[in-house]
Amino acid sequence: MGLVKREQIAGMNIHYMRYSLEYFLDAQVRAGIKTIEFWTGVPHYYLDPMVYGDCKELKKKINDRGLEVKVFTPENCMYQFQFAANKPLIFEKSFQYFSNGIKAAAELGCKIMQCNSGWGYLDETREEAWKRSVEMLSRLAEVAKKEGITLALESLRPEESNLVIRLEDVKRMIREVNHPNMKVLIDTTAMAVAGETLQQWFEVFGKDIIHMHFVDGNPYGHLIWGDGYHNLKEFLTVLKDNHYEGYLGQEITDSKYFKDPMSHDIRNMEQFSRYI
């Protein structure tokens, strides 16, 4: 049953953070994955406000294995740089960090870089932080325009942010940034935590949805398909009915997968195989 193309399924390296880059790439080949959404965490890649890793070397390692990197995802939840940073120095360092991410994405041949709203301090008003997020994303969208990149904005869970956590928040942020180089990313975990559905997102954003973090959940978890309660066939049917042809990033973040990530990626692809 052809509900998804193999090339749409984008393996990610977050749950390989205790393994080398080479091990991750070889595991993707073993699992039958063709496409990569590249997360920039150490030890796989170095990115900071001043410098970033050798993209030619990284791209060669990826391409030599018959893989292609299509989406670039700078680390922005665990490390110090975020899109609504409070202190002016950290705000500017964050801008430089994400700008370097955009430039690295362009060098790798990606067309999409993931982003989110960041978060505000809990002892300030939400609107203060919201304004900083709009400013940051507006400035980064201009950098993205120069580099031929489109930013893909995702919602977060309430535990991660007090800014963009629902579909309506994404709608407002897209409207206020108002830039053709920022579109929409659906994270199925954040979506489900908010009590929303894929169809609702497609009804609001349509073709402006350019990427997904497409994982199982209960509703939390960022889980391998089959480990949560979402119905993969139903989800893929919604995508096909709405003519979605973007990538499905496998953003697997639960630490229970960290010890033996390859086996879980293989198991994940077995779930997809019946619909490819």
Question: SSE layout and pairings?
Answer:
Layout: E1 9-12, H1 21-31, E2 35-39, H2 55-63, E3 68-73, H3 88-108, E4 112-115, H4 126-147, E5 150-153, H5 167-177, E6 182-187, H6 188-193, H7 198-205, E7 209-213, H8 232-241, E8 247-250, H9 261-273
Parallel strand pairs: 1-2, 1-8, 2-3, 3-4, 4-5, 5-6, 6-7, 7-8
Describe this structure in words.
Residues 29-256 form the Xylose isomerase-like TIM barrel domain. This is Endonuclease 4. Pfam families: AP_endonuc_2. By secondary structure, this protein is an alpha/beta fold. The chain has one domain: Alpha-Beta Barrel (TIM Barrel), CATH 3.20.20. Helices cover 40% and strands 14% of the residues. It is built from nine helices and eight strands. It has an eight-stranded parallel β-barrel with strand order 1-2-3-4-5-6-7-8, surrounded by five helices. Helix 1 runs parallel beside helix 9 (261-273). The longest helix is centred in the middle third of the chain and has 22 residues, at 126-147. The N and C termini lie close together (7 Å).
